[in-house]
Design goal:
With 293 residues, the chain is α/β, with parallel strands linked by helices. It has 16 helices and six strands. The chain has two domains: 162 residues, TPP-binding domain (Rossmann fold, 3-Layer(aba) Sandwich), CATH 3.40.50.1220; 75 residues, no CATH class. It has a six-stranded parallel sheet with strand order 3-2-1-4-5-6, with helices on both faces. Helix 15 links the parallel strand 5 and strand 6. Helix 2 crosses helix 7, helix 7 packs across helix 12 and helix 8 runs parallel beside helix 16. It starts with 5 loop residues before the first strand and ends with a helix. The mean pLDDT is 88.
């Protein structure tokens, strides 16, 4: 596999400035979707899901001690009820599609712009050929931003930008899959929600019982990296180990990550799992400006 010197690893906090929920926020949203007064609940009934089953899932979510929807999906209640897993995948897609708008990613004052300027404004012509992005997020906002900005800067169509060599040579690996609907920015109905959910890979999916192609690629890229920067990441143990962050290869010279609002005991735990990581208590934009620009 090709070696990428610089690797960015993204968690839900990295998409937060663009309107997407963090993991705890997504859990709260899904609970609200499952209440009988919500349109999502009505759509589930139209899809022949039974009201008592929806209520049982809602009560399980309310009583769970887990902090994130990923943790909940790994619990026995979901492993033993495939229908619950499917409903939650619908709910994730429903929540994220609502935020996938061109207006949301048009914020010029956050880190997507800083990243674009760093990549495409580099004096090193080979720089874009030496960066890879690994994300745990389902949304496609970063790729959409890079394509739209590149189209505007180069006076080309968005379709041409998507097919341009510079865009294509920056791999964006979605470890947990991504929304699979065809268009970005809607309009969306429940049919597109169902279609979009097909691209989501979660812990109870059969594919995750073995290593998915995304995980294999992520591990290989990290193993060969020289510099690793981690943005908006929750540092959940399973996710750190899933992509091999707990096994530092000799070629890695630097691992730094944001740790905004992460407690000291939790930071100590993270440094015990990821050898040599430097944690910085700042947001993604400031982190990139201070540590990488």
């Amino acid at each position: 596999m090709k070696k990428y010197n610089t690797v960015l690893i993204l968690g839900a906090g990295a998409s937060k400035p663009y309107g997407f929920p963090t993991q705890p926020e997504l859990l709260t949203q899904i609970k609200s979707f499952l209440t009988s007064r919500h349109d999502f609940h009505t759509k589930l009934l139209e899809e022949k899901y039974l009201a008592p089953d929806i209520e049982e899932l809602l009560q399980s979510l309310k009583s769970t001690q887990r902090d994130t929807i990923d943790d909940f999906l790994g619990a026995p209640v979901c492993k033993n009820n495939p229908a619950y897993t499917k409903i939650i995948k619908y709910a994730i897609a429903y929540a994220l599609l609502a935020q996938e708008t061109t207006e949301q990613i048009g914020n010029p004052d956050d880190w997507y712009k800083k990243l674009y300027d760093r990549i495409f404004g580099s004096r090193d012509d080979k720089f874009t050929d030496n960066i890879a992005i690994i994300t745990f997020n389902y949304d496609r906002s970063l790729k959409e931003y890079l394509c739209r900005t590149h189209a505007a800067m180069q006076a080309m169509s968005i379709d041409d930008a998507r097919e341009s060599t510079l865009i294509k040579q920056i791999p964006i690996i979605h470890v947990h899959g991504k929304l699979s609907s065809s268009g970005y920015g809607g309009p969306h109905n429940f049919k597109t929600v169902v279609e979009a959910s097909d691209g989501i890979i979660i812990n109870t999916d059969k594919v995750t019982q073995d290593l998915s192609n995304e995980i294999i690629m992520a591990r290989a890229i990290i193993h060969e990296a020289t510099f690793i920067y981690i943005l908006g990441f929750g540092y959940y143990d399973e996710n750190m180990e899933k992509i091999g962050l707990n096994k530092r290869s000799p070629g890695i010279k630097l691992i730094k990550g944001t740790a905004l609002n992460i407690s000291r005991p939790r930071r100590n735990h993270i440094t015990g799992i990821i050898p040599g990581i430097e944690l910085v208590q700042t947001d993604s934009k400031q982190f990139l400006m201070d540590e990488w620009m």
